[in-house]
Amino acid sequence: MHHVHASLKTLAAVGLLAWVTVAAAQPRTTNGILTDEKGMSLYVWDNELTAPGKILCTGPCTITWPPMLAKKDAKASGDFALMPRDDGTLQWAYKGRPLYHSANDKQPGDHKGDGFRGIWHLVKP
Fold it and tell me: How far apart are CA 40 and CA 79, in angstroms?
């Protein structure tokens, strides 16, 4: 049983790496909500309102809510900013709020994370 648990951890880490290595251009508005360039929905987390300018979704949180990372040459403009994460990567933020994907969204237009526990929300500019 212990071996199976280690394998699950490895799978989770591999899945996380798949998300984390996808750095994206500035978010855009698609059908009234913020998305990445592939049309995947973006979310904000109300808990981060308690610590303006800080990213609180780290570690296990990022398995379900992968951060929307910026490409190395990304330039922030307008309501969009780049916030540094603990690992040195940059995460897109909208009006000071870090942006995340939902691991439960499988294709463009999905928004399964909206309203999760009442504290995760789609971003509607």
Answer: 19
